[in-house]
Amino acid sequence: MNGLPTTLEADGIWLQFGEQKILQSVYVKLQTGRITGLLGRNGSGKSCLLKSIMGLMPTEWQSVRVNGHYIGKPYQQPGLIRYLPQHPFVPPSLTIQAAFDWYGVDIRELAEEYRAIGQFKNQPFGKLSGGEKRLAEILLILKSDAAFVLLDEPFSHLMPVQVEQLQKTIRQESQRKGILLSDHLYRSVLDLSDSIYFLHSGGRTIRLTSPEQNLKDMGYLNS
Ligand SMILES: Nc1ncnc2c1ncn2[C@@H]1O[C@H](COP(=O)(O)OP(=O)(O)OP(=O)(O)O)[C@@H](O)[C@H]1O
Question: Is the Nucleotide-binding keyword given for this protein (predicted)?
């Protein structure tokens, strides 16, 4: 691939577990400089889709292309893509400082805005509260040097003031990255996103044209 990655397209993703069809020919497109939202009911397959894009799921078929070039295992490409899973992923014995060093993120840049990060930098992850841990993990992924970032429920466990701060950081980082944002805090997803996909329980994505109305029509929001 020549030049900097600017577009990532995941196409024709098919995934099933036994008889249960999860994803059926799903398509999503990410672009650097843009935030793409992903919404869908509980269990519709959003987390599976994010893992599939990374190359971490045993899909029946899928094609991930960066600037039009097929990439077999996106997660193996240095500087291409990072993924925030729903569940904690940093080993509990690692300190915040050590984790940030490992991901190549300068903790000093964040410590002023996110006081807790600076304050607890010598604490191991295992001793942090659920919200503190989540915040540190989101920032690790979001600030690391990658062209694309996939965020699975970044706002869960965070108090409102941190959600607001994080929205600001997501906007800042989107100036140089393509971000896929999936969260049930739909208002934040709608406010931040340049375009929004809805994953139907049948396993297909549609792009929302009038997000709020579409979400009501599909029963994701009360009308
Ligand atoms: N490893 C697995 N083996 C079997 N079934 C799985 C596996 N992983 C996920 N599933 C099933 O796939 C479906 C989609 O799960 P997924 O976690 O992707 O949903 P989701 O849209 O992220 O849900 P939520 O909004 O509740 O987080 C669920 O029915 C789940 O039980």
Answer: yes
Instruction: Give the atom of ligand 1 at the shortest distance from the alpha carbon of 44.
Output: 21
Q: Which residue has its alpha carbon closest to ligand 1 atom 18?
A: 45
Give residue 199 CA to ligand 1 midpoint distance, Å: 12
Q: Model ipTM?
A: 0.97
Q: How far is ligand 1, taken at its centre, from the CA of residue 175, in Å?
A: 31
Per-residue HEC secondary structure of 81-141 comes to: EEEECCCCCCCCCCEHHHHHHHCCCCHHHHHCCCHHHHHCCCCEHHHCCHHHHHHHHHHHH
For the chain, the structural domain boundaries read 7-87+148-217
Q: Which CATH superfamily is domain 7-87+148-217 in?
A: P-loop containing nucleotide triphosphate hydrolases (3.40.50.300)
Centroid of ligand 1 to alpha carbon of 48 (angstroms): 6
